[in-house]
Amino acid sequence: MRGVIRLVALAGAAAVLAVAPVNAQAASPKFSQTTAIGTHNAYEKDKYPYFAQALDSGASLLELDVYVDSVSHRWRVSHGNPLGNDNNCEAAKTPSELYGKSRNQDLGSCLDNMAAWNRLHPDHPPIVVKVEMKVGFNDKAGMGPDEFDTLVAQKLGGDVYKPADLLGGTYATLDAAAKADAWPARDALKGKFLFDLIPGTVEQANPFDSYWTDEEYGDHLRDLSAAGNISAAQAFPAVLGAANGDPRTSRYDASIRPWFVFFDGDAATYVNNGYDTSFYSANHYILIATDAHNVSPAISSTTPTDAEVAARLALLAKGHASLITSDWSAKSASVLGSVTTRG
User: Residue span of the signal peptide, if any (predicted)?
Assistant: First the structure.
C-alpha cells in the first residue's frame, strides 16, 4: 500500500549514510517537508547537565514534563514529583549566566534559559518544545491555557512561532492552513521555538479527569479564534497515540477537530500495524514518531551508532514522520541536528 511505513533493507553503512541533509540544498524546504531528530525528556540532568546544553545539542525537538502545582501556583518541571522541580533548567536569565547557575527550577526558568540561549544563537534552526502536561491544566485554580500562553509570551515574546503565524490572517483554521501547506520555509523559522502540548500520563490515568490537555487547548484555540484573539495562543495541541486514518474523528467534537495539526504516536506502532501514514504528509500535518529506537530491528535507545541513527531517520522519513524521538542525547550535534527530506 502506498504510504505505509515499510522496513527497508539497507546494504551497508555507506548506503545508510548516503542520506543527504536537506539543508545542503540551495532552496530551503518548508517545515512540513522535512524530518528531523528530537530528544525525549531533555530536561533530565543525566541527559544534559544544563538545559542550555540540550539547546546546544542540535536536536530539533526537546521535551519537558510539566506539573501544574495548584497549591503554589507554579509550573513544576519534573518526571515524577508534582510538588517539586527536578531538572536541568537553571536560574539564568542572561547569556552570561548560562551553564553554571542553580538548577531544579520551574518552567519559567526553563523559558528564561531558552530566551538567553536565543540571544547567543539567533539563527538556530527551529526547535519544537514538546510539553507533556503530566496532570493536565487546572483552569479553576488559575493554571489553565490562558496562563500558560501568558507565561510563554512574557518569557519568549517574538521567538515563538504561534498558531496565528500559520493562519497568516488568511485561513480560518489550522487544518485549512496546513492543507494549503502554509508552513514557512525552515530558513524563515530560524531563531524560533514551536510549542506542542500533549496530555500527561498522570492525567490519562486519573478516572476523575476526562477533559485532557489536548481537548482543553483545542477548545481554547477555537474560542480565541471566535473572539478574534487567536494571536494570544502560543502552542499547538497534539493528538496523542498512533492510529490509522484520522484519529481526530473519534476523539473530538467537530468544532475543535480543525485546530489539530500536530500528531504524536509510537513509531513502532505505526510500523508494526502497517498504518497508512501518508495521511499526515498529504495534509502537511506534523507527525512526531516517538521511541524511534524500538522499530524493528531495534537499536540502542541511548548510544546507537551514527549509521543506525541515519538509517532510522531515513526509514521514518519515508514513513512520513516530521520528527523522530529517542534518548540519543549522547550523540553529537552533527547527528542530532540531522535533517532529511520527508517522504
Answer: 1-26
The neighbour count for residue 12, using CB atoms within 10 Å, is 9
**Cβ burial, residue 50 (10 Å; 0-12/13-18/19+):** buried
Q: Which residues contact 285 (CB under 8 A, 6 or more apart)?
A: 32, 178, 261, 262, 263, 279, 322
Phi, psi dihedral angles at 267 (to 5 degrees)? -60, -45
Q: 0.85 exceeded by the pTM? A: yes
With 0-12 CB in 10 A as exposed, 13-18 as middle and 19+ as buried, what is 161? buried
pLDDT per position as a tens digit, 86-96: 999 999 999 99
d(CA 319, CA 327): 20
Please tell me the distance from the alpha carbon of residue 269 to that of residue 254, in angstroms, as a whole number.
26
Give φ, ψ of 77 to 5 degrees: -115, 110
Check if the beta carbon of residue 63 is closer than 8 Å to that of residue 51.
no
Q: How do residues 67-88 score in pLDDT, each as one tens digit?
A: 999 999 999 999 999 999 999 9
> Element (H or E) spanning 214, and its range?
helix 213-226
User: What average pLDDT does this structure show over 12-27?
Assistant: 42
CA quadruple 197, 199, 200, 202: dihedral positive or negative? Answer: positive
